[in-house]
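User: quick one, sequence for these tokens?
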């Protein structure tokens, strides 16, 4: 049963989400990835969201480019936390999707991460943090992940100054 779902507006978004999906594999988080568009397949999106909620879903991640309403539409259909990833597509390279995702009117929140690949990774890490509120083993993995990151920066600095 998935704890997290990653929705994307089109399969063309998939490459940009790979680092986020890898985070769930690394942390052992059950997840599903679905192509569901807010514009092109609105009924399929809401049906899939409801089905996953019934199965015990805890966090929704929604990635879309252009006039990116996917995260906001998901948030309007669920009480679960929703994280939005603005996908960077030409011609505006993600500024369009950033504003469409982040500028939610008051009342229906979307936690928006940065544009593109970094955002995909951070969306997954944010989802892990949310799940870790209730799961001590996940919190410990997250702590070790941060420690490893800090060590890698210190190693880079040592190598630079050798
Ligand atoms: C959005 O439109 C998708 O999330 C994608 O980023 C963008 C373009 O989709 P395609 O035309 O490549 O299918 O809904």
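Assistant:
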């Amino acid at each position: 049963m998935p704890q997290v779902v990653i929705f994307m507006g089109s399969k063309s978004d998939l490459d940009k989400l790979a680092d986020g999906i890898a985070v769930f594999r690394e942390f052992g988080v059950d997840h599903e990835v679905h192509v569901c568009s807010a514009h092109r397949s609105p009924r399929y999106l809401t049906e899939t969201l409801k089905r996953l909620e019934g199965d015990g879903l805890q966090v929704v991640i929604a990635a879309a480019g252009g006039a990116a309403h996917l995260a906001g539409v998901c948030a309007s259909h669920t009480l679960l936390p929703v994280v939005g990833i603005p996908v960077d597509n030409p011609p505006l390279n993600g500024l369009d999707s950033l504003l469409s995702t982040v500028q939610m009117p008051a009342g229906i929140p979307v936690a928006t991460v940065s544009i593109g690949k970094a955002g995909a990774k951070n969306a997954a890490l944010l989802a892990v943090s949310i799940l870790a509120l209730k799961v001590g083993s996940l919190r410990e993995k997250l702590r070790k992940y941060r420690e490893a990151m800090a060590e890698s920066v210190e190693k880079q600095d040592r190598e630079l100054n050798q």
